[in-house]
Amino acid sequence: MTRNKNAFTNGIRDGIPIALGYFAVAFSLGIVAKKAGLTPFQGFLSSILNHASAGEYAEFTVILANAPYIEMAFVILVTNIRYLLMSCALSQKFDSNTSFVHRFMVGFGITDEIFGISIGRTGRLNPYYNYGAMAIALPSWAMGTAFGVVAGNVLPQSAVSALSVALYGMFVAIIIPASKANKIVGGVVMVSFGVSFAVSRIPLFDHMSDSLKISLLTVLIAGLAAVFFPVKEENGQTSASESDKEAVEYDS
Predict the structure, then answer these.
(1) 170 compared with 218, residue with greater pLDDT
(2) pTM of this structure
């Protein structure tokens, strides 16, 4: 019991900076949600169930386009599918006796940032650490969206338009560092820009919604990049002493 309590407290501590960042980003998402016609409660509910800025932005874009539900499901699946891989990677850090319920709940609450702080823990991962991070970060994400919708209803249209640009700034902030660090990533980004622009100008694709175009291009370009530029695995293996240490530790 004490071990779980300590892990939960550590999760809350490490989740506070994430929560502050989430509120600011989700506020911009709330502006987009307002443009899509969502109420503050609907925005809150959307964010408490969908913990990804790209996924939610795609969701609101589909709503704005009055696209069918099947298209929304496909778009969100494509934009959020990376969390399936993160869940598989994180499950390797759990003790073999960790129940399915704990694994399921941790998987539900995975975000890029929570995955980052969790995978960085030494030794075995206690699920209560994730619960602590989720308890502070996810409500902040949802509240940020709700407050963004409220602000969109109160602020003048000029201010709403200016704030909606902040979300695009966030996406730029995500791709620029990765593009500078890896030339292949930078090349894929530039190709994506070029192909997206070309598709938007070709009459053949006019019958498709913007969200469906983006989703199909994401699958196609990412798939080709994975085939032609696969990530090389490191050959190094964990030493026996490190493995023994991880087997003993359990997120105290």
Answers:
(1) 218
(2) 0.68
